[in-house]
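To the team - manganese (II) ion complex, inputs and output below.
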Amino acid sequence: MLKPRLSVKEILHQDPDPKQVHTIMGWVRTFRNNQFISLSDGSGPDVLQVVLELGKFDENLLKRITTGACLKISGKLVASPAKGQSVELLADAVEVLGDCDAEKYPLQPKKHSLEFLREIGHLRMRTQTFGAIFRLRNTAAFAIHKFFQEKGFLYIHTPIITASDAEGAGEMFRVTTLDLNHVPKNEAGEVDYSKDFFHRSANLTVSGQLEGELAAMAFSKIYTFGPTFRAENSNTTRHLAEFWMIEPEMAFYDLEDNMNLAEEMLKYIIGECIKQNDKDLDFLNKRWEEEERQKPAAERYPMNLLQRLQFVLEHPFERLTYTQAIEILQNSNYNKKKKFKYPVDRWGIDLQSEHERYLVEKHFQKPVILTDYPKDIKAFYMRLNEDGKTVRAMDILFPGIGEIVGGSQREERYEYLLQRMREMNIPEKELWWYLDTRRFGTCPHSGFGLGFERLVQFITGMGNIRDVIPFPRFPGHVEF
Ligand code: ATP
Ligand code: MN
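Output:
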């Protein structure tokens, strides 16, 4: 067994002590003047400075201390004269656990482009930027569980392989064990799925909502937090083929309760990240400010990353209906001067991301919750309003991101639900179990889906969703 040891993060909190010998392990970020190693083990944003006394170590050993090499070092912690750190490790012994050929190692101690780093996804986590991003992702994920657990929600696992594409939330990935070179066909010449593993066609889930609703009809308040798959053939900075979604579902919640919960949750997660990862955020903030400086003044965001997070924490989200939003958009100078690619010319159109961003970034300059969308542009399970035209939907729109949350009060009335399914050609036979909940003890209930990566994008200020998940999947890319 390797001896218990302190992490870099822990040792940086220790007081200097000339008597105690510490052993520390990690990877070399840089090695300067044959004397100063900055060592990282990913435990936090800070590196440990290790000092090698000149002349004390063998030349051959010093040559092997290169960027990326893995070292085991014992030494004593002393007060550091250098600025930016209170202690450093004075090395007694250095052992190379893993050499790293500096000629071949793709990560050099210099600034690499995000595109290049995406190509070396197996190594990019060792950089400061991705270290910060994935530590924040970790904090946000844990905060989500804390938030819901403290409120008495039950964490439920919905299936990853499903039979139905009920919601039509997106294109699905098929799951099959059929031999694709010899696909069995029925008499009509169609693929015979009765010969497939599940004896019917199966897909990867696009949402756990419908199953989540079943659970809410037993436990009252539940949430899921799991992977979701959509064969989105759109190469955007907001879509992945595999992403993580948080889907709470609550019995006895109406749309307003639902909005309140979502707003409280988003603020809680952001607050936890600010509290626990302040240095990571400071680092990403500097990165953000540098990037903003490259842009023409008119395109710059009026706040830096930290200010924007703080702003979201401190201000209530703006709530308005789809109908009110359409009025604002229609009457905007933007629309009149034909600056939208898709003009806003009538009630009933689906909002494009340019419209959402106009509302959030130009008009209100804060997060916005839009409610009561036309039923024709929303899913079948959303509760019909008295007007017969709109449904109790809500989308939360964030600056720089657009839609971050999509939710609704669910249609709990059997007859209404059945009618909507028929109107929208949703196969009743496949969803018999979903309809059953409306037959056996139905109740008013609500829920929403939060795209986890979009939230991490907002928190870290990263422009591309591919940079906030360790191993992104998108059209043409399934490496690592
Ligand atoms: P969009 O219009 O942006 O494609 P959507 O309407 O398809 O979103 P929903 O089906 O409501 O989204 O899914 C709930 C949430 O999941 C969204 O609010 C968003 O945060 C996230 N989401 C949806 N599709 C993706 C994707 N392909 N990659 C990452 N996150 C996604
Ligand atoms: Mn979509």
